[in-house]
Give the backbone structure.
Amino acid sequence: MSNFSVTFRESGTIQILDLQGDLDAHTAPDFEAAIKRCLENDHHNIVVHGTSLEYISSAGLGVFMAYIEEVRDRGGDIKISALKPRVYNVFDLLGFPVLFDIVETEEAAVQKFSGN
């Protein structure tokens, strides 16, 4: 049984996805469904909040890569916030900080959408 979940919150026009648990090959479809739901509801500014994300595999990272171009084509972006050091290291090892804004706090991620 999966210990992964995604919850949705909003901050103005920004959709915040709170990830909890392990994002791996078994749970990546749940994360993919969450991103699709954002796009279907015309939410193109997305913050992925990772305070409770314990683990991410290549399958989970693949979801980010699968949707970033579509999100940006629609005028939005995906910002990543509040990752635990061991989870951040996986993103960093694969070069994600070059492709995505990865910041320490949710507030910093939200501010990046307003250009501050």
Summary: The CA atoms of residues 61 and 94 lie 9 Å apart. Helices lie at 28-40, 58-73, 85-93, 96-99, 106-113. The longest strand covers residues 45-56.
